[in-house]
Design goal:
It is a single chain. With about 550 residues, the chain is of the alpha/beta class. It has 22 helices and 17 strands. α5 packs across α6 and α16 (about 400-420) crosses α18. It is globular and about 85 Å long.
Length: about 550
């Protein structure tokens, strides 16, 4: 019996779905390729004819990192795929893997492998890939790819233009529930709740799509939630570009999450404009963080990219998140049309003043297939013609401005985000009488002068560098009287953040009483040093 099963498997046509990830993490889990693999498995005409395997690679894989050239990396990937003797390889193509997969396809073709390519890069401009891949599938692939494979294997007609524009999501199998992908392998999961977006921001792939949102069924969502509970998935990144667009649905799902997976940490994308106290309180009932796209604080700039923005409402609702104690981060983009370096800096100042737990700063990518790409000339945008399509300059943003913005982004990531500086950052800025963008500029210059690598490293090391920089900054302004208090505040909050992250206690030495450090007094260093008496000692946090 075993021999018979083995022979049947050998005779089945081998199909591999693959992608090359930026990293191996819950955020970079190969969900797109997994969805296509799952759809092929469940397509009736192929069930007894094909064996399907999902194989993913990462740019951070040790063997890939060792190789210098894209050609070498493509060769390694091709060799791994050819080990399984596939007849067809389905590639999920993104900006970060496009070049390597083009080279990989050329190698696979020599062995007679048929290449089907899909994903955002293919959808953006399929005509570019003629002759590189055998077939280019645009848009959602779960219906198109299985039928294309059927046409290849059985010489049947294939007419993608006859397919519906959008897929009925209730017809799609879950790659989690059918075992196509195991989230524990990636330390977490990407959880798809919906497709589409009610907004049409010009820089996003959704900018030219229909202004509709399709929801996965409650039944599927409930089963996947139970699956995450059974697997004890530690973290889940929710794929819904505006989770809180439908308040009642958002509230109902938060209750289910709290009941079913109370120990899982969730990441949501949300719009600040739709936040209220009821929603904010609901988010506090589960371990979670929200990421909110600000992009720019200039309403005229946002208007150019078709992104509505009500600054007064934004500030009010972010205030609600802070009042309720919700963890949240903000996104900014530099190089947007109409944005000058000065207005970008004002955006940093505005965002930091809202006390986000992290402030993510990105360079604008003018992605093929977006409205921004089509209007680039009209908007005065010059950008890279190859991935990642980053902006080079605009009519108001020079290459020098781009470099300066990149430096601020590096400083912010290291000092503010990785340095977990939100509890005390604005206090230090006010004491130094500088705004956040000036602070990041000063820290970048300090790091360069002291040969500090602004890459990710242990928080304790970052903390040491934070204290050294602030000590020097106070000394230069004859504000040495603030140094001990600032150091205590940084050490105290740093120890708490590490305890929260690891669960491990540690001992720290403080000059000032911890009950005053952990109070409103610490928000004003001048008031603090004038009114709080030192009481040196050691505490355990």
């Amino acid at each position: 019996m075993f021999l018979l099963v083995y022979i049947i498997v050998i005779l089945m046509t081998k199909i591999i779905c693959t992608t090359l990830l930026v990293e191996k993490s819950p955020q970079a889990l190969p969900l797109g390729a997994a969805c296509v693999a799952s759809a092929i498995k469940h397509y009736a005409p192929l069930k007894d004819e094909c064996s399907v395997e999902l194989i993913s690679f990462s740019r951070e894989d040790e063997d890939i990192q060792k190789l210098k050239s894209d050609q070498e990396k493509a060769g390694l990937i091709a060799a791994r795929l050819l080990k399984d003797s596939p007849k067809i390889v389905c590639m999920s193509v993104f900006v970060w893997n496009k070049t390597i997969f083009e080279l990989c396809a050329a190698i696979l073709h020599k062995s007679g492998v048929i290449i089907i390519a899909g994903g955002p890069e293919i959808t953006a401009h399929p005509e570019v890939f003629t002759g590189i891949f055998d077939h280019a599938v645009t848009g959602e692939g779960e219906i198109k790819v299985p039928r294309l494979i059927e046409s290849i294997l059985f010489n049947k007609a294939y007419a993608p233009e006859s397919f519906p524009k959008t897929i009925d999501l209730k017809d799609l199998p879950s790659p989690y529930l059918d075992g196509t992908i195991d989230p524990t392998e990636f330390g977490g999961a990407l959880w798809e709740l919906a497709r589409g977006c009610p907004f049409k921001c010009s820089y996003c792939y959704e900018s030219k799509g229909e202004k509709t949102v399709r929801l996965f069924s409650e039944e599927r969502i409930d089963k996947e939630l139970e699956f995450f509970a059974k697997k004890k998935v530690p973290q889940v990144f929710v794929l819904d570009p505006t989770y809180n667009a439908n308040k009642q649905r958002a509230l109902a799902l938060l209750k289910k999450i709290a009941r079913t997976t109370p120990d899982t940490f969730y990441y949501f994308e949300a719009r600040a404009e739709f936040i209220d106290h009821q929603l904010a309180k609901a988010f506090t009932k589960i371990p979670c963080a929200l990421q909110i796209g600000l992009q720019s604080a200039d309403e005229n700039v946002l208007r150019k990219v078709n992104r509505p923005f009500n600054k007064k409402l934004f500030v009010k609702n972010i205030g609600i998140l802070n009042q309720e104690g919700v963890t949240f981060g903000l996104d900014l983009i530099y190089g947007l049309p109409g944005e000058s370096f000065n207005s970008f800096c004002q955006g940093i100042n505005f965002a930091a003043g809202l006390y986000p737990n992290n402030l993510e700063i990105f360079c604008l990518s003018v992605l093929p297939g977006t409205d921004l790409y089509d209007r680039a000339q009209e908007l005065g945008l010059t950008f890279e013609v190859t991935p990642p399509y980053n902006i080079i300059k605009t009519d108001k943003f020079t290459p020098q401005d781009k470099q300066k913005a990149s430096e601020l982004a590096q400083a912010c990531t290291y000092f503010y985000n990785d340095g977990r500086a939100v509890p005390w950052f604005m206090t230090i800025c006010r004491s130094l009488k500088i705004n956040p963008s000036e602070f990041f500029k000063a820290f970048y210059d300090y790091a360069k002068a002291h040969n500090l690598e602004l890459g990710c490293c242990e928080h304790k090391i970052i903390e040491e560098n934070q204290i050294k920089f602030i000590t020097e900054a106070f000394r230069k302004r004859n504000l040495d009287r603030y140094t001990k208090a600032a150091t205590d505040i940084i050490l105290f909050n740093g120890a708490i953040s590490r305890k929260t992250a690891t669960g491990k206690s540690e001992k720290i030495k403080l000059i000032y009483p911890p009950e005053y450090i952990d109070s409103q007094y610490s928000l004003d260093l001048d008031f603090f040093v004038k009114n709080v008496r030192p009481r040196p000692g050691q505490i355990t946090i």
